[in-house]
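thought: fold this chain, then report.
action: predict
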Amino acid sequence: MNLLDIDQFQWHHHQETVAGQPIIDYWSSVLSVSNSGRIEMLYRWEPNAHCHFHRHRAETTSIILQGELNVADYVDGKVIDSWVRPKGHRSFAEGDEVHREWGGPQGALVYFSLYAADGLLADQLDNHGNVIRTTSLSDVTKHYNKTL
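observation:
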């Protein structure tokens, strides 16, 4: 499987515009899901567009395949750190970091591998850090079932 040949994957578009909020415009594609709690996905961001404000509940490894990914960590609603992950950058986090991610000027293509022993992947948050919804492995497999 060539992860850079994006036309071979079935993509789900996440798009949302809310006044006063960053533009949400990104795509996701499930590559694999294991019975042990691991999921592999590709995400791609439109140029300068964001994904939802969130917190990973799972151990997460990511690798930037194309473009660059901007990241900002938050504590109590305030940015405490921000940086750019360039093409080729690999990162690992055990979860629980509240953050925003967005594509650089050319967007971004990112490989993610998440391990969720309890099946919980991420919490989508409102601007105050309150949980809007939690995404689980079962949610993803139901939604993407026809592509797996």
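thought: worth noting. The helical segments are 137-144.
final: tokens above.
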